[in-house]
Amino acid sequence: MEERPNWVKDKTYAKDFEIIECPSLDPYKDFKTDLGCYILIKVMFDTSQISVAICNYKHEILKEFRGKKAQDIWSTIFDYEEKNNLKWFNRKDHIAYLGKELKKAEIALALGTTYYQE
User: Fold this and answer.
1) Full residue range of the structural domain in which residue 86 is found
2) 33-89, pLDDT tens digit by residue?
3) How many domains does the chain have?
4) What is the mean pLDDT of the chain?
5) How far from the centroid of its chain's Cα atoms is residue 102's Cα?
């Protein structure tokens, strides 16, 4: 068994437990497109909101979601997607990207600084 991480207190290990080192990814070379949609995020300082446009690959904006907090927005997007049996977000890395970018936008809105979508 590998060395017990010092942050683990009262947990037990699965029989096949292992520590996996994660490689550094290149944001361009390792980028994979989600075939369901792409997103555009904008901070709207005039209304103190964050806007997320869901776009198809014909470059049409399908829906726009607006809110003040990252979690409110992504929860609403995923609820809408599920309720309407849509397949916008098929890749988990795309879902993680949405969460990361929405949190960056929320921080920019709170601080009054410019937001740049990666």
Assistant:
1) 38-111
2) 899 999 999 999 999 999 999 999 999 999 999 999 999 999 999 999 999 999 999
3) 1
4) 92
5) 7
DSSP at 8: -
Q: Is the dihedral of CA 12, 17, 18, 19 positive or negative?
A: negative
Question: β-strand 38-44 against 49-55: which pairing, if any?
Answer: antiparallel
Inside any domain, residue 59? yes
Q: Tokens at residue 98, please?
A: 């949405």
Sequence-distant (6+) residues with CB within 8 A of 47 are: 66
Does 85 reside within a domain? yes
Rounded Cα distance between 21 and 34, Å, is 25
In a domain, 8, yes or no: no
Does 73 fall in a domain?
Answer: yes
C-beta of residue 67 within 8 angstroms of C-beta of residue 50:
yes
Strand partners, 67: 50
Residue 8 pLDDT exceeds 80: no
